[in-house]
Amino acid sequence: MVQLTRIYTKSGDKGKTALGNGKRVAKNHIRVAAYGTVDETNAIIGVARLHSANHADIDAMLARIQNDLFDLGADLCTPGDGSDDSPDQPALRITARQTERLEQEIDTINAGLEPLKSFVLPGGSALAAQLHVARTVSRRAERLIVELSEMETINPEAVRYINRLSDHMFVLSRHANNGGEGDVLWQPGLTR
């Protein structure tokens, strides 16, 4: 279990931070930007949960996803793909099982939605709108994770998980909009 006794350490006052392996990098390093944006996604999901009181199924999924996102952040914070982790103390890595759970939930939710007839504009209910924000921020996290993967070796499951997460947020937003009935649909050229 993690135990934090001090919140500030002053070790980052010169613009550097420690990774999971102890190496220090600039706070604007692509790796820090990637896991920082995963953290931002997690925070937005926390805000979405404020609107999920009448949706116990959605709240339970979001709670699991928030925990997964801490796992993903820990994975990205530790360089490598897991292949060279110490057997005595392996780094925490996101797993295929976590991604597969997202896929199963996406398929289950999507089966109950109204078929799409147009692109969906972010909005509808407050919960759906927050889930759309989480979707777009998770896409930004994905872009950063992919950029990191082009520069350094990372766990490939990290890319798969974050890619599925944005899809999950999309179908979940539609589910929160009364199964898609409350979706706000794009009307091409409407405001010309």
List the helices and strands and how they pair.
Blueprint (H helix, E strand, L loop, with lengths): L15 E3 L5 E3 L3 H20 L6 H22 L18 H16 L8 E2 L4 H26 L4 H21 L7 E2 L7
Antiparallel strand pairs: 1-2, 3-4
Strand arrangement, major sheet? 1-2
| Main β-sheet description | 2 strands, antiparallel
Strand content: 5-15%
Helical coverage, percent range: 40-55%
Stretches where pLDDT is under 50 for at least 5 consecutive residues are none
Give the distance, in angstroms, between the N- and C-terminal Cα atoms: 57 Å
The number of strands is 4
| Overall SS class | mainly alpha
Mean pLDDT: 91
The string of secondary-structure elements, in order, is: EEHHHEHHE
Please report the number of helical segments.
5
- Shape, principal axes of CA atoms: elongated
